[in-house]
Amino acid sequence: MTFDDMNELVEKYVPLVNSDIYDVVKGAPEELYNASLHLIKAGGKRLRPLVVLATARALGGVDAEARAIPLASAVEIFHNFTLVHDDIMDNDDFRRGVPTVHKVYGVPLAITAGDLMFSLSFASILRSLEKGLDEEYVIKAVQALTEASRKVAEGQGYDMLFERSWNVDAEDYLRMIYLKTGALVEASAKLGAIAAKAKDEVIETMGEYGRLVGLAFQIRDDILGVFGDPSKTGKPVYSDLRRGKKTILALKAASSNEKVKELLIDIFNGDSSEEKLKEAAEAIKSTGALDYAQGLANSYSRLAVEKLDMLKASGLIVDEKAYRALRDLAVFSAQREK
Amino acid sequence: MTFDDMNELVEKYVPLVNSDIYDVVKGAPEELYNASLHLIKAGGKRLRPLVVLATARALGGVDAEARAIPLASAVEIFHNFTLVHDDIMDNDDFRRGVPTVHKVYGVPLAITAGDLMFSLSFASILRSLEKGLDEEYVIKAVQALTEASRKVAEGQGYDMLFERSWNVDAEDYLRMIYLKTGALVEASAKLGAIAAKAKDEVIETMGEYGRLVGLAFQIRDDILGVFGDPSKTGKPVYSDLRRGKKTILALKAASSNEKVKELLIDIFNGDSSEEKLKEAAEAIKSTGALDYAQGLANSYSRLAVEKLDMLKASGLIVDEKAYRALRDLAVFSAQREK
């Protein structure tokens, strides 16, 4: 698949959203604002703004798309805030090919930059008032970001607590990634529907679409973290195994076989020779964990497409290109190579 | 002065606000929520909720006071979030007589607990919808907290940058403490006026009151940090000098006399014998820095009272007790011993 409609909209949206974000993340002290822009400037997929803007356009046409820009910036600023704080917590040195914010500016300024970005994401939501979004919908937008921000923090909490335990099953893991990753994509789709002044049921249906895309995307991320091609992902081979990340692959493989579990524990405790890493990757395949995870991603992806098609069947889609881009994204989430 | 009206309302409000906060800061994972409640449970003055609730009552009576409770909880939760992150950045071990959140739960969970509390402060604002506050005013409330949260982050940024430099004058310092401390008290007073459905000019006037009280409070805090009685403040004698805090006292004293500046630089670089500390405290008095700072606090306090009296003269005060409590607070801010 080539995902032409999705790629066309991404190309249109990235400069729009970037320039809007630079309008919001602007102020003094300069060093704090530079720290806040550091990762945003380094790139990123702008997946969440795509969801916001394409949803707004699919349901409300180009007027809704224009109204949705401050909402798209809000979720991207929020997403980058979470990366700044996550990098501190994980003590990561690099992201998007540049040193992380706390490596450049120090931990205290990086914590504060994250807090500032959190605040600016709400400021960006409120700018939709000036874009002509009614108060009723602005409140819905604030509610959507507030709810997502709570879930993201809870998901981050679970993620850290899971690091200490192997007593985590697939259900626990899926709830965690829904909170940590899915909830913000869910909010992105809701925000797009809100910008289109959609009915509550439609906002909820798009939220479901976002949740499913977010889950497919994260599970595919877990797969690429072990089996991804380093020349495409930009990450070292077996990177999630080296980092000791308890992804769905590791959890599923460990739960199916005591020997595999011991192997993974060894690796996660630091004994990560190339040989052991290769053995673990093979075990993840042989236990069926890889097929299980890809199957999950595929079914979330299919369900997401169904949500869109329900809206289409109800005559609620007013823009074919945006609709096809959202369909593309649902498929891409589960199949992407990078 | 005995501040009877203020103390009476504080006694009424503290249990109300605490119980409301416990309704908001509730969820899973348990350890994350425990970390979020850790400092809130340890006490604190609940100064900001007092400003919210007494303002609402002064301008709108007991109905407005009841509507204001989720807004009062919001500012207190937000304030505690800033303490959690500040303690990490300052690497402080104790606050309110208990170990800080990151000392008990580790830095990663403490960062996340702060982020969760940030989110929950917005969630608490949104609960005012259920209390019957109109959408128009709910948006004003979200705007007030958003604006304050941005300023607090900027103020924290300036505070950290100032640590590296002596090239900071009184004006820079006052802007910094307005952002870091004043802005949230300003927002608290605005939120009270918003709960009372006051006109925009009245909301702004109360915001001014809050800003002035916040400034007086912080300058008095700086004074108590050097000259406070340890048996009342609960902090060691000369605590801000030992900690190398560039308060208005240190900046003013250093700028008036090169020898005093050298003495302070020595102390802040770690050479803090009792003798040197005493000498520095004397120098802060002899250079007039103490009188200057107390004079500033007094004039902010007087100006805050004038704002209230303007509203009273316009017939906008509907509750005498709440009005007197706000007057008490303005005076207390500049004169308190703890």
Protein model, in words:
Chains A, B: This is Farnesylgeranyl diphosphate synthase. Chains A, B: Belongs to the FPP/GGPP synthase family. The structure is a homodimer of 338-residue chains. Chain A has 338 residues and is an all-alpha fold. Chain A has a single domain, classed as Farnesyl Diphosphate Synthase (Orthogonal Bundle). Helix content of chain A is 79%, strand content 1%. Chain A has helices at 4-24, 30-41, 47-67, 69-90, 101-105, 107-126, 135-163, 170-195, 200-227, 230-233, 239-242, 248-256, 258-268, 274-286, 289-313, 320-335, and strands at residues 94-95, 98-99. Chain A has a two-stranded antiparallel sheet. In chain A, a hairpin with a 2-residue loop joins strand 1 and strand 2 (98-99). In chain A, helix 8 packs across helix 9, helix 9 runs antiparallel to helix 15 and helix 13 packs antiparallel against helix 14. Chain A is globular and about 60 Å long. The relative contact order of chain A is 0.13. The model of chain A has no long low-confidence stretch (mean pLDDT 96). Chains A and B meet through helix 4, helix 6 and helix 7 of A and helix 4, helix 6 and helix 7 of B.
